[in-house]
Write a structure and sequence with these properties.
This protein is of the alpha/beta class. The protein has 2 domains: 74 residues, Arc Repressor Mutant, subunit A; 180 residues, Glucose-6-phosphate isomerase like protein, domain 1 (Rossmann fold, 3-Layer(aba) Sandwich), CATH 3.40.50. It is built from 13 helices and 5 strands. The chain has a 5-stranded parallel β-sheet with strand order 2-1-3-4-5, with helices on both faces. Strand 3, helix 11 and strand 4 form a beta-alpha-beta unit.
């Protein structure tokens, strides 16, 4: 279990001092926990002994153990397929059936990682006609962002997918207005340019950054107003994005269905406009 998850299990049983410390730790997770105990005490406006007592309350031997575990989490976020292969759980027997079984369990666990309240908040942001929506992902995870933006474009106007070439990114950043939504997907082996994009969008353009990442949390987390930490591990050489796609489809489907009259009109107009390409109806 991650340090974040452990902290969250104590959320309803914290003193005022512990709540201040928790806010400081989670607002810049995991990096806030890697500074010295004196620095963290100053940042959280609590005493070093209060931090030591809090860490013990979490079931850890002390502040150094918490830092070691945070460092281990960071290393997990940078594991290559070769490293994953060495420690993964091999599939034996019927490969297809076992793989799909693991993916199904992964998708089910996504409902434990994302609350209905958070899901509803994000749907409200994505459906707000006053906000434009921008999307992008990493080298592989951009397929998730493309999937989201394609379907969302059929339900509403003002949805843009950033190109792969970073030379085209400034044009989209400069279009962003305060309150616009920037949907970023960044899974482990995180990309520095995704973090930089999130920072520019949040700090310079005042956009609402929604980050889809994994349980080890992309560094872009520190610039996001909403973080969707979906499961990706299934024990094979490559991580699986099955849960990420399921969550993405749930988001865009709810947005489309909650605004069905507008969605229907737009899809009908969209289909009519597509006929210029010579396709015949069957």
């Amino acid at each position: 279990m991650s340090i974040r998850s452990i902290i969250e299990t104590f959320a309803n049983n914290l003193t005022q001092s512990e709540r201040k410390l928790t806010t400081a730790l989670l607002s810049d997770y995991p990096y806030a926990g890697l500074i010295s105990i004196q620095e963290l005490a100053e940042r959280a406006e609590v005493s070093p002994p209060s931090i030591s007592r809090f860490v013990t309350k979490l079931g850890l031997s002390g502040y150094p153990e918490m830092q070691r575990r945070l460092i281990a989490e960071l290393k997990e976020g940078d594991r290559s397929p070769v490293e994953i292969r060495e420690t993964g759980k091999r599939i034996e027997g019927g490969y297809l059936g076992e793989f799909i079984s693991r993916a199904a369990k992964q998708m089910q666990s996504a409902t434990e990682a994302i609350t209905e309240g958070q899901f509803t908040r994000i749907c409200a942001l994505l459906s707000d006609p006053k906000r434009n929506v921008y999307a992008i992902g990493g080298r592989i995870s951009d397929t998730v962002a493309q999937h989201m933006s394609f379907h969302l474009r059929q339900a509403r106007q003002g949805v843009y997918h950033l190109p792969r070439d970073p030379e085209g990114w400034p044009e989209y950043l400069l279009r962003m207005r305060p309150g616009d939504v920037f949907f970023i997907v960044d899974f482990r082996r995180y990309q520095t340019n995704m973090t930089r994009l999130a920072e520019q969008a949040a700090l310079e353009r005042k956009a609402q950054v929604i980050l889809m990442t994994d349980k080890w949390l992309s560094p872009a987390t520190r610039h996001a107003s909403e973080v969707l930490a979906v499961p990706i591990e299934i024990g094979t050489i490559w991580d699986s994005y099955s849960a990420a796609l399921a969550v993405t489809e749930a988001l865009v489907t709810r947005v489309a269905e909650d605004n069905w009259d507008n969605t229907r009109q737009r899809i009908e107009a969209w289909d009519a406009a597509r006929q210029f390409d010579g396709e015949s109806e069957t």
